[in-house]
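Structure tokens please, single chain.
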Amino acid sequence: MRMLTGVGILAGLACVGGPAVAGTTTLTFGVQLTIQAQCVINSTATLNFGTAGVLGGAGGATNTDGTTTVAVQCTDTTPFDIGLNAGTGTGASTTTRKMTKNAGTATVNYTLTQDAGRATNWGNQPGTDTMTLAGDGASHSYTIYGRIPPQTTPAPGNYADTVTVTVYY
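Here you go.
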């Protein structure tokens, strides 16, 4: 066996770290992002009034109520309004919407409101009949309260409407 002279353990470790450096230099760079005011509608759900017979029930004074939700997310401090249009029913308005019978012209009147007492209409004119809020950066669900008031009951069948949600910001 051959012995190397003058080579010790420390000499071997010096090679592990790589070559010696003559100096260093540094420079910084910036990181930035511009957040613009924005809102998104994360989800909507069907408002299903279920199955009914005579609209108004026995005596003609009973409402048929239902609810659904819309989830909206806006950047923090961004003011916004949620509006609901009149729907697609012929002759509908934001105060009296109309579900239309499939393959027919018969309609069922209904309303959409912002409160459980069903007193505040939910329309589509910002600052007038929309829900006015301010964003906090998180998604929130807002309840839409629907009501079919007592009315002359049309022929049996499936009745439907499509309402568009608009977020103004």
